[in-house]
Write a structure and sequence with these properties.
With 143 residues, the protein is α+β, with helices and mostly antiparallel strands. It has a single domain (2-142), classed as 2-Layer Sandwich (Alpha-D-Glucose-1,6-Bisphosphate, Chain A, domain 4). It has three helices and eight strands; from the N terminus they run ββααββββββα.
């Protein structure tokens, strides 16, 4: 089951996943695993608070990212640049917060909130983007 909510400047998605929280956590935080379903590559990013790096897509370029908070298997917060090849400092960026809760039968309830959009067009672009990317996460976890 998935659910979408779009408010004035944020997107909220909720997924019920069959994978256990530790498995989902690795898919969100380990560079090789994140790169297997989200960007084409993760560059220089380690799963620690304060870490900086890049999420790189062949079609969309490299986007700067900083991990702001990390509570293993519970909560991950990152900030990332809206435009490719631009620094986070002083640029247009949004915050993505992931929370994990134990779900039924050993699964995981995964919540995603992205906030800080300046325009409706930006928000709508990411609504469709998250639908596609989270479908890829579901497929990746099932493999």
């Amino acid at each position: 089951m998935t659910g979408d909510t779009v408010t004035e400047n944020e997107i909220t998605r909720t997924l019920e996943l069959a994978a256990e929280p530790s498995r989902v956590w690795r898919a969100l935080t380990e560079p090789a695993e994140l790169g297997a379903w989200f960007p084409d590559r993760v560059e220089g990013l380690e799963p620690t608070a304060g870490a900086e790096g890049w999420l790189a897509w062949d079609r969309h370029g490299r986007h700067a990212i900083t991990i702001e908070a990390l509570e293993p298997e519970r909560r991950l917060v990152w900030r990332w640049a809206r435009a490719s090849e631009t620094p986070l400092e002083g640029g247009y960026n949004t915050k993505v917060e992931w929370t994990l809760e134990p779900g039924a039968d050993g699964g995981t309830i995964l919540n995603l909130v992205e906030s800080g959009f300046r325009t409706e067009a930006d928000r709508q672009e990411n609504v469709s983007g998250w639908r596609a990317e989270l479908d890829e996460l579901i497929e990746y976890l099932a493999s």
